[in-house]
Specification:
This is TadE family protein. This protein is α+β, with helices and mostly antiparallel strands and about 120 residues long. Helices cover about 50% and strands about 20% of the residues. Helix 2 runs antiparallel to helix 3. The termini are far apart.
């Protein structure tokens, strides 16, 4: 009986050490998913702010600057704005490069959102 208990000492530490890489991978994936969701939300915020400004004739050229001002600094630096639309409306599409929290992986794609506003 004494020999069986001694052989199991440290087994839980070994199991934890074996599971640690999997736990870290799941945690990094969850964090990356949250960052991607935040980038999509920021793209929508920037698109709405830029479309609001682009719809006003007197300050329409400042639409990209106002879109970036509405976003957080680290997503604004990764964003681009495209202006479109017709005679009666303006459509701004904002694209944000999704930042990576995974070391060695730099390409998680882009998040893009559009907003349409009527012209003044």
């Amino acid at each position: 009986m004494r020999g069986g208990a001694g052989r199991e000492r440290g087994a839980s530490s070994l199991e934890l050490a074996g599971m640690m890489p999997l736990l870290l991978l799941v945690a990094m994936a969850a964090i990356q998913l949250g960052v991607a969701g935040y980038a999509v939300q920021q793209a929508g915020t920037g698109a709405r702010a830029a479309a609001r400004i682009a719809s006003q004739e007197d300050i329409a050229e400042d639409y990209a600057a106002s879109g970036k001002a509405a976003m957080s600094e680290w997503t604004a630096s990764r964003s681009s704005f495209d202006l479109g639309g017709g005679e009666d409306e303006v459509r701004v599409t904002t694209t944000v490069t999704i930042p990576s929290v995974v070391p060695g992986v730099d390409d998680f794609g882009d998040a893009s959102r559009s907003a349409t506003m009527p012209r003044d």
